[in-house]
Protein: 3-ketoacyl-CoA synthase
Amino acid sequence: MELFSLLLIVPVLCVFFMLWKWVNESRDQQCYILDYQCYKPSDDRMVGTEFCGEVIKRSKNLGLNEYKFLLKAIVSSGIGEQTYAPRIMFDGREEHPKLEDGISEMEEFFYDSIGKVLSRAGISPQEIDLLVVNVSMLAAVPSLSSRIINHYKMRPDVKSFDLAGMGCSASLISLDIIRNVFKSYKNKFALLVTSESLSMNWYAGNDRSMILSNCLFRSGGCAILLTNNNALKHQAMFKLKCLVRTHHGAKDESYNCCIQKEDDNGRMGFHLSKSLPKAATRAFVENLRVITPKILPVRELLRFIAVSLVKKWKLRRGSAPKGVPQGPIKAGVNFKSGVEHFCIHTGGKAVIDGIGVSLGLTEYDLEPARMTLHRYGNTSAGSLWYVLAYMEAKKRLKKGDRVLMISFGAGFKCNSCLWEVVRDLGDGNVWKDEIDRYPPKTLVNPYMEKYGWIQDEDPSTFKFPEDLKF
Structure:
């Protein structure tokens, strides 16, 4: 009888032990944001209408048609007059950059934002276990992560990763690396550093598909401090719920729609093709198909299935128009049933508008992305965190709220993730001192007022007035 009881107890104890082990391990596999710091360059790097005119005027390879194209692009971009450019632009050397220009641009950001976020969190650089740096268009030796490690004298066993060529969606790729490392190691601190180097990537030619990037991209970046230490969860700002990455690099059209290359005259630039919107839509739809079941409540998923079945039945009976696209967007999913806030990459006004229409968002939902684009421009992989900071500065983020981040990048990629707000937030980050001025009464771009005369010029006689004052 005792033997029988022993044989019965042992399996039960084994089951309880396995359950305890699983719960214990899962507790340390969470990913929390303790703090983050967006970068705000000094005012002497601010790009106003007058300065833009100076830059355009000294671009000797542009003709009247290119000027008209740039005017139209800038006016419709959604970008205001308080964005920032690298110092090389103000020195008039953008067409002849040096490696040290790109490195100094990054170091200025590194030492400002990293220092602030570590100091505010009360974390020593020697406590950092994992460092992930993503700067797509600058590779240096020693690496950028090594420069950070050297400056802050981090431990010799710190694990470091440098990501290049990942484009505007790189910060969520960096986040995915940190999340996976956290699954294998307990009680760790990670530092995610996301930015883009513009100093060495100004396009000096006249190819329209490549000069467009000069109009859209601006300086910026963010340093994010993360941990999987469950004991610190009450100090955290956000908890990562899920992350989905979609990569369409196997499709030639998607691969080539957003690519760094030389033009016909050998000038390096960033080519944005006409197939970019189509490639972005495909990646976006596929990404949503994967993340939707992870973020929406069961009742909304059941409603979605029912609506889809009815549409298919009507289509078979011929009572619905043929060729109606299927998928989570067109089938009428209510994403706001599982998400309170939408953090959208500021790739441009058309990107924000497109996502807004696809997800059925209101102007209130799109305001953080629109205002970030207006104030800071497209800061590449760092843009998501400026949008998040705007929500925080407006005191929108309450405990328990969920924030969906959506980003796009060359490759072509669409990455998304869902955060849960751990505590009420409202510090403001880089928006703190100016949030009361947003949204402004008007977003009308002043460039047309300054340069509208170009539209009436004759290509055969056009010459830029030498005495024109900007």
Residues 20-25, 320-327 have pLDDT under 50 and may be disordered. Residues 187 and 229 are 4 Å apart (CA to CA).
